[in-house]
Amino acid sequence: MSNRPVPDMASDQAAVVGSFPPLQTYSEEENMMREAVKKYAQERIAPFVSKMDENSAMDEDVIKSLFEQGLMGIEIDPEYGGTGSTFFSSILVIEELAKVDPSVAVLCDIQNTLINTLFVKLGTPAQKEQYLSRLSTDMIGSFCLSEAEAGSDAFALKTRAEKHKDYYIINGSKMWISNAEHAGVFLVMANVDPSAGYRGITCFIVDQDTEGLEICKKENKLGLRASSTCPLNFDNVKVPEKNILGQIGHGYKYAIGMLNEGRIGIAAQMLGLAQGCFDNTIPYTRQRVQFGKRIFDFQGMQHQIAHVATQIEAARLLTYNAARLKEAGRPFIKEACMAKYFCAELATLTTSKCIEWMGGVGFTKDYPIEKYYRDCKIGTIYEGTTNVQLSTMAKFIDKEYDH
Amino acid sequence: MGSSTSLVPKSVTAAINAHGFGYFGCPHTFGQVGYRLKRTEQYIRVKPDNSSVVTDGVKHSMNPFCEIAVEEAVKLKEKKLIKEVVAVSCGPQQVQETIRTALAMGADRGIHVEVTGKDYETLGPLQVSKIMAALAKKEEAQLVILGKQAIDDDCNQTGQMTAALLDWPQGTFASELSLEGDKIKVVREIDGGLETIKINTPAVVTADLRLNTPRYATLPNIMKAKKKKIANVKPADLGVDITSRLEVLRVDEPPQRQAGMKVETVDDLVGKLKEAGMV
C-alpha cells in the first residue's frame, strides 16, 4: 500500500521567505521553462549531436524544432509571435541547451541576445513589423562585425557604405560570421564616413537574397562545428536607407552595448558546456573500478572533482548574478566580463580534467567528452577575448578607486 | 462543441487526473521516478525507520501516464470534439506546478484540491477517486481521463474506483480512443492482445503507454499558462472524507541483487540448481 510522506520544499523552489533569497531562486515560469528545455534538448537534440559535429552541419529539423519550441524569440513580444519572457529565461535556456550541444546553444544565444535585442531596442515600427515575427518563427539572423583585419580591434573595420540619394552601396568583406549558412537576415556594421573613424560605423539590415551578398564556404573548425562560421563578401550590395537600424554613425555604440549583454549569454553557454561535460563524466568515475575500488573513491580524484565542482558553482553564481543585475537595470558590465572570462576558463579546465578522469575512453569519439573539450576553446576567444575582458575589468577597477 | 455532429456529448468537460503529484502529483511518486528514468542517477532510499521513502531533494514531476492523459484530452479539444479540458491534482502547494505543466500543454483551467501534511501522507486511490467522483459531478464532466497508474505506487485503482463510485462505464488501459457520437470507442491493451469496446458517456478512461506521445510545453505556451486559472478546493468542500482505512506497517527496499555465476555445461547447471534445492 502506498505511503506518502510530505515532501520537503527544495531550497530552490521555496517561496521567498526572507528579503534576500539565494541566487539559485527562480520564478515558477523560469523553472518550467528550464524543465521544458531540458526535456526537449535530451529528446530532440541529443540524438543528432554527434552527427552534426562530424558533418559540420546543423540539422534542419533541429533548427525547425528550436523555432517550434519558442526558443528563438524568448524576449520578443507575443504580438510578434515571440515568447514574451525575460532575459534571465534566455540565460537558463542557453545553459540547458549548452549542456547537450554548445553549437545549438550559440545559435540560440546569438539570435536572442544579439539579433532580437537589436531589433527590439532600435527597430522602427516598420522594421519590427517586417522582421520580428520572422525572427521568432522561422528566420535566423547573423551579426556581422568582424573582418580579417578587424577582430579585437573591431572598429578598424573597413567595410564601406557609400551614400547615394536614398540608398547605400556596401563593399567589403566580413569574417567569422556565425549562423551565416542558415541566416535570412544579416546585421552588417559598415562605415559610411571613414574620415570620422569609428563614429561612421552604421548598422545595416541586409536580407539574405540581396544581390552582391556572397556567403562563402564555411570554416572547418576545431569545435562548435555544427555552428556555421563563414566569410562574407559584399560586392556593390545595394541597401535602401530605410534599412538602417538605429542612427547613422551610432553603430559602434550598439555593437558595444549588445556585446555587453551577449557576454552573459556566452557565459551561460560555457557554463552549460562545463556542466554537461561534468554530468557525463562523474557517472563513469562512480562505475569504473581499478585496484578494487571505484576511481571516484581515490582521494586524488575526489580532490580534483571537488575543485572543479566548486569552480562550476562559482561560475554559475557569477553568471546568474550578472543576468539579475542587468534585469534590475543596475550596472553590470564589469560583472558580465567577469562571468564570461571565468566561465570560458572554467570550461577549459573542466573539459580537460574530464578527459583525464575518463582515461582512455575520454580520448575516443565514442564518448561525448572529447567534443566538449574541442568546443570549449572558442569561449576564451569570441565575443571579446579573455585579454579584452580582463582589460575592460581593469578599467572599471581603476575607476572604482577614483576618489 | 459539437460542430458537425449532435452526436458529440453536450457540455463536455474532460477532467484529467494528472496523477502527477499524488493523484496529480504525489511528490513521492516522483521520487521513484528517479530510479526508473533512464538517465538520472537518483536512487530511492527507504528511511531508516522503515516508515516510508526519502523524498528530500528528490525530483518530482508529472506521472508519465498522466502526461499521456493530458495529451489525449488536449488532442480531443484540438479536434473540437470536447469543449474544455480541466486538470485536477490533489496534494500540497507543490502540485500547482504539475497543474501548470498541464495548462502549458493545453488544458484550459486547473483545480487544486488541497491536501497537506498527515492527510497527504495517507491519501490513497480510494480517497482520490471519491474526490474525482465529486468533482466530475460538480463540473458536469462527460469524460474523465486518468493515467492508468502512478509509477510510484503502481496501484492502478483510481480510474476503476472513480467509475464505480460514479456508476459510469470505464475504458481502462486505453491505447486508442475515439468519440463516436455519444459513445466512446476504446481499444484496450490486455494480456491477450487488444480489446475494442464501445462505452456510453459519461465515462472514465485510463491512459496506457501507447495512447499517444505527449507534446513538449513550448515556451510561449508556458507563458500563456500563467494567465490560466487554478481554483482552490478542499476535500471537505466536496463532501469527501479522506480518512484512510489503511495503515502502513513498514517499507523495505527490495533485497540486494546477488551476483550470478557462470557454468560451463547444462549438467553443471542442473547440478547447481539441485545444490540450491531448487530442483
TrEMBL record, chain A:
One of its GO terms (biological process) is carboxylic acid catabolic process. Keywords: Acetylation, FAD, Fatty acid metabolism, Flavoprotein, Lipid metabolism, Mitochondrion, Oxidoreductase, Phosphoprotein, Transit peptide. Residues 249-396 form the Acyl-CoA dehydrogenase/oxidase C-terminal domain. One of its GO terms (molecular function) is short-chain 2-methyl fatty acyl-CoA dehydrogenase activity. It comes from the Eukaryota. Pathway: Amino-acid degradation; L-isoleucine degradation; Lipid metabolism; mitochondrial fatty acid beta-oxidation. Residues 142-237 form the Acyl-CoA oxidase/dehydrogenase middle domain. It is found in: Mitochondrion matrix. Transmembrane segments: none annotated. Its EC number is 1.3.8.5. Homotetramer. Its cofactor is FAD. One of its GO terms (cellular component) is mitochondrial matrix. InterPro entries: Acyl-CoA_DH_CS, Acyl-CoA_Oxase/DH_mid-dom, Acyl-CoA_Oxase/DH_mid-dom_sf, AcylCo_DH-like_C, AcylCo_DH/oxidase_C, AcylCoA_DH/ox_N, AcylCoA_DH/ox_N_sf, AcylCoA_DH/oxidase_NM_dom_sf. Residues 27-136 form the Acyl-CoA dehydrogenase/oxidase N-terminal domain. It holds the Pfam family Acyl-CoA_dh_M. This is Short/branched chain specific acyl-CoA dehydrogenase, mitochondrial. Belongs to the acyl-CoA dehydrogenase family. It catalyses: hexanoyl-CoA + oxidized [electron-transfer flavoprotein] + H(+) = (2E)-hexenoyl-CoA + reduced [electron-transfer flavoprotein]; butanoyl-CoA + oxidized [electron-transfer flavoprotein] + H(+) = (2E)-butenoyl-CoA + reduced [electron-transfer flavoprotein]; (2R)-2-methylbutanoyl-CoA + oxidized [electron-transfer flavoprotein] + H(+) = ethylacryloyl-CoA + reduced [electron-transfer flavoprotein]; 2-methylpropanoyl-CoA + oxidized [electron-transfer flavoprotein] + H(+) = 2-methylpropenoyl-CoA + reduced [electron-transfer flavoprotein]. Its main location: mitochondrion.
UniProtKB/TrEMBL annotation, chain B:
This is Electron transfer flavoprotein subunit beta. One of its GO terms (molecular function) is electron transfer activity. Its main location: mitochondrion. The keyword Electron transport applies. Heterodimeric electron transfer flavoprotein that accepts electrons from several mitochondrial dehydrogenases, including acyl-CoA dehydrogenases, glutaryl-CoA and sarcosine dehydrogenase. It transfers the electrons to the main mitochondrial respiratory chain via ETF-ubiquinone oxidoreductase. Required for normal mitochondrial fatty acid oxidation and normal amino acid metabolism. ETFB binds an AMP molecule that probably has a purely structural role. The electron transfer flavoprotein serves as a specific electron acceptor for several dehydrogenases, including five acyl-CoA dehydrogenases, glutaryl-CoA and sarcosine dehydrogenase. It transfers the electrons to the main mitochondrial respiratory chain via ETF-ubiquinone oxidoreductase (ETF dehydrogenase). One of its GO terms (cellular component) is electron transfer flavoprotein complex. InterPro entries: ET-Flavoprotein_bsu_CS, ETF_a/b_N, ETF_b, ETF_beta_N, Rossmann-like_a/b/a_fold. Belongs to the ETF beta-subunit/FixA family. PROSITE patterns: ETF_BETA. Gene3D superfamilies: HUPs (3.40.50.620). Heterodimer composed of ETFA and ETFB. Identified in a complex that contains ETFA, ETFB and ETFRF1. Interacts with ACADM. GO terms for biological process: amino acid catabolic process; fatty acid beta-oxidation using acyl-CoA dehydrogenase. It comes from the Eukaryota. It holds the Pfam family ETF. Keywords: Electron transport, Mitochondrion, Transport. Residues 50-242 form the Electron transfer flavoprotein alpha/beta-subunit N-terminal domain. It is found in: Mitochondrion matrix. It comes from Dicentrarchus labrax.
